[in-house]
Specification:
By secondary structure, this protein is α/β, with parallel strands linked by helices. It has 9 helices and 16 strands.
């Protein structure tokens, strides 16, 4: 028996409950993991509210780090005692321990802490997907990042600068603006101002090559207006709510734009692709190209407080829950 944060109904942070749960022995191809750090993500709030429905009761959480406690028959890629991390396409990480498919676990390399790994797996591999696959950023590209000091945004800014791109960061406060500059953003604009007009001015009315937008409803149309003709709009989150239905003609009006809504797990369907993405990400952390900023930690039992702060945009960088 162990503990987990579960929900029995959809709603606000108050639906999160600390409960006793049973963790079985690992079966064929499985491993039992004792969590040491759990990543907090906006997708957790979407599932808590029912925007992304789950089968209830449910344990939230998509990414974590920990130690392998036991392995089932047929597991050869891991052994008891290995430090591992994962990002999963199904919830269940808000727990002290759980059983998982071993092929979806990756070893944490030396020089990367459990907190860093837990903060990196979903957000870091999302950044890898966005910068290296959804749109392959190269030297000379200009891009716009909304929520630029959030968990994914802060990684995007650093990684894009490493690739030689020019980065325009959109943030909500002057304090976050300073952090965006520390991360390497070339220009920083406030979402409370006319950031679309400022972006056009910064690009001499050309527009940016690609927008990475995790805010959703509040910034979507503005983000489209920041693109150059045939630019790419990448919407990958709904922090302000889901984007309303839009006529495809809006893309034509703005210069034959492209629009995509990628999901990480469509880009890492096999272990080979998973390990390749994780290895590239961990390598940049080891080389200090990416500084994983864990801005705050909370005891797992206080997950509700963490959700309140995340939704109020009081968090900076990544947030980790500690069992």
């Amino acid at each position: 028996m162990t503990h987990a944060i579960r929900i029995h109904s959809y709603g606000g942070p108050e639906v999160l409950r600390w409960e006793t749960v049973d963790v079985p022995e690992p079966g064929q191809g499985q491993a039992r993991v004792r969590h040491t750090a759990i990543g907090l993500n906006f997708i957790d709030t979407y599932e808590r509210t029912g925007l992304y429905p789950l089968q209830l009761p449910a344990v939230l959480g998509r990414e974590a780090a920990g130690v392998v406690e036991a392995v089932g028959p047929g597991v050869t890629q891991l052994k008891v005692g290995d430090r591992i991390a994962y990002a999963f396409n199904s919830a269940g990480a808000y727990s002290e321990a759980r059983v998982l498919a071993a092929e979806r676990l990756v070893r944490i390399p030396e020089g990367v802490s459990d907190n860093q790994a837990a903060a990196l797996m979903l957000k870091g591999m999302t950044a890898q997907m966005l910068l290296r696959q959804t749109f392959r950023v190269r030297k000379g590209n200009t891009l716009l990042v909304t929520a630029a000091v959030g968990g994914v945004g802060s990684i995007l800014v650093q990684w894009a600068k490493h690739l030689g791109a020019k980065v325009i960061a959109v943030v909500s406060t002057t304090a976050k603006a300073e952090r965006a500059r520390e991360l390497g953003a070339d220009h920083v604009v406030l979402s409370s101002e006319d950031w679309v007009a400022q972006t056009k001015a910064l690009t001499k009315n050309r527009g940016v090559d690609v927008v990475y937008d995790s805010v959703g409803k509040d910034t979507f149309m503005g983000s489209l207006d920041c693109l150059r003709p045939r630019g790419l709009m990448v919407t990958y989150g709904n922090a302000s709510g889901p984007v309303p239905p839009m006529a495809p003609l809006e893309l034509s009006k703005r210069g034959s734009l492209f629009l995509t809504r990628p999901t990480l797990f469509h880009y890492i369907p096999t272990r080979t692709l998973l390990v390749r993405a994780a290895s590239e990400m961990f390598d940049l952390v080891a080389k200090s190209v990416i500084d994983v900023h864990v801005g705050q930690t909370y005891p797992l039992q206080e997950a509700a407080r963490a959700h309140v702060d995340l939704e109020a945009r009081r968090t900076v960088g990544s947030t980790v829950l500690v069992p």
